[in-house]
Amino acid sequence: MHALEKILAKASGRKKVQAGDIVTVAVDVAGINDLYLQVLQSFTKIGLPKVWDPDKVVFFFDHYAPAPTIKSASNQKEMRDFANSQGIKHVFDINSGVCHQVLVEAGLSLPGKIVVITDSHSTTHGALGAFGTGVGATDQAAILATGQTWMMVPEIISMRIEGEIPKGVSAKDIVLKIVGELGPSVAAYKGVEYLGETVKQLPLAERMVLCNMAVELGAKTAYIQPNQQVLEYLDAYQKDYELFETDPGFKYQAEHVFDVENLKPQVALPHSIDNVVPVEESGKKRIHQAFIGTCTGGRLADIKAAAEILKGKRIADGTRLIIMPASTKVLMEAINKGYLQTLLEAGATFSAPGCGPCLGTHQGILAPGEACITTSSRNFPGRMGSTEAEVYVASPATVAASALKGYLCDPREWME
User: Fold this and answer.
1) Cα separations (Å) of 69 from 74, 120, 227, 361, 368?
2) Could you tell me the residue range of the domain that residue 115 belongs to?
């Protein structure tokens, strides 16, 4: 069996499962963000007085942090009241950050666990050896009632990545290249495993980027076998977990190989995440806004990359640079290392940790006719505001370099 199949087998009380099996699994983490008050409304209709296990239910206030409207504020209040009444302790309020980042920082995302969150990018948690997947409101309500959910065991495809990563290239460039070559449906309802010598060397933050954007391939879930660095990170939390490994000879439904030795910085052009070209071939497209943040690109290494490019410089006139750390912990580390001051002096605007402009709710939405380059994960019309705006998706280094010049720019000339 594959490691993902072993996780599902254990969670469903079976000795063996295979692709196509329908299983009912016990959920270890049921996460709800502030877009999904409907979860609580549906749970109330079920008629049960209590959730199945308050210690396994997690609330996140990240999509509207702080609340920009009366409606979003009211939704958050109802969710806080529900959590208090249910004895739910894991409540990450507006001072915390993006759900996928804070769940990892809290030591709640662990190998071998079933992590189900009302957010499609829950595939992120495969970077820690978990089975992470997104779920809708009514399914999550049923999980709150029973602690279980059903799913079909997915077929597994592999993405083998080999070669030394060139200067100026990051995991974001690698996954954009993969999405651009294979398209957004190659992994529809499949599990994606990233493997290969290149992946083995990647730090946790970069692994999270690969798994996060597996959903842009259509994936149900994603997986990377934890390396020693990841295990040492987890051991600091002194949590119990079970590490699964894929059996030798396991047959993947499909296998893809990518050599990144000569990979160049990539960018996804409007209006599709698979419309990918090297940045140097994109033309000097005028940029009105640059955004560094979200569950895909707001970690410390991302902010560091921007600070190194922009240190002692100023962003272009007429271009806005918005930086939104993925969590308060990331923000504090960026302050301690001096990145915040460097970027503020360069003309950046910092916003509270959260999702905000990624989904076009607040803190940096776009007007008609504007173009934004972003570290987030999607660029369909209206994603970050007006349907008449253009969204370009790239790495933090590319975003910083583009903010510096005011147009789409290859970051390598600005990197030591």
Assistant:
1) 9, 24, 43, 10, 22
2) 3-257
